[in-house]
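Hi L.,

As promised, Chaperone protein DnaJ:
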Amino acid sequence: MSSKDWIEKDFYAVLGVEKSASEDEIKKAYRKLARESHPDHNPGDPSAEERFKAVSEAYNVLSDSGRRREYDEMRSLFGSGAFRRNARGAGQPGGVPFDVSDLFGGAAGGGERRFGGGAGFSDLFSSIFSGGQAGPTAPRGPARGRDVETEVALDFGDAVRGVTLPLTLRAPGVCDTCHGNGAKPGTEPRTCPVCHGAGVTNRNQGSFSFSEPCRNCQGVGTVVEEKCPECHGTGGVTKTRTMNVRFPAGVADGQRIRLAGRGEPGERGGQPGDLFVQVKVRPDEIFGRTGDDLTLTVPITYAEAVLGTDLRVPTLDGAVTLRVPPGTPSGRILRARGKGVVRRDGQAGDLLVTLDVVVPARLSDEARAALETFAEQTPPAGREHLDARVRRVS
């Protein structure tokens, strides 16, 4: 994307959020729109792919605090009419409004270049206010590829123990025909004769000197004379890729795994973006999780709670015996140390077992008689203070 387009596009509107939206709100909106417009969910719909690219483009800027700050500042400056050719400004005699097309060389300046590679707006505006002196400009090079995000569902046990799974994506990838340089096999891109490989050109505008993306090479620094027939000179094509992804032990629901350099390739050999894998953990039938601890609820009988017992309970990789002491109330938690989630430092969380005393709904005549005998020989429950309050208010 060109710098001009970066300013003119309303990324907040693309994601459907307010300018004051938080990072979480932006992320939530992006995930919803990315799922709805993903090419895998809309086969054969080119407009969906364009929407997906627009949503990813907006998220790449707004999810980065530095880019978002620059974007907001530039939009605010141009939107408020802060730049004027004459000091008297618009609406005053002799004042001529500043045209953003003058700054970026007009809309007819050729192809677009995506934001993300090389210098940004800080470099651009340092040259704007250089007082007419255009300093040396560092080469920009090919643009960095966009980041890609996908979602993977893991079984509870795999998330706790860690697992390596094949991940299949249909997303932009490096063109196999030209290996990403955009040139027809047997040919090579050549250095741009206009910017001499810098990717930018300097231009005087009144008392100012501006650096702008080279319109001859779209800011890449090289020119492809004979384009690759497969990717048409971009260096990337949409294709199905399968890769093995390692999910570390203890990965949690909602966690994002970053795979550096596995996202969308950059244009014509530029640095690829990253792949972010959002983890969804399927719930287990019996186990729960709190941080690094596993949780389990085990029912016991009234007699086991009163008399005590040895309780055999499952773990993720076997079983363990816990001692239930006599007189255990319902809701007590027993701890099996080291039977939880293994941490990155090699230490493990615990298995927390909550005891649930089950009260039978029906009793045999023999059991009822035995329970009545037990009740006659059992001391009161210790609620005398409650009985006293009832007598006072009665």
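The chain has three domains: 1-109, 140-282, 288-393.

Thanks again for sending the construct details.

K.
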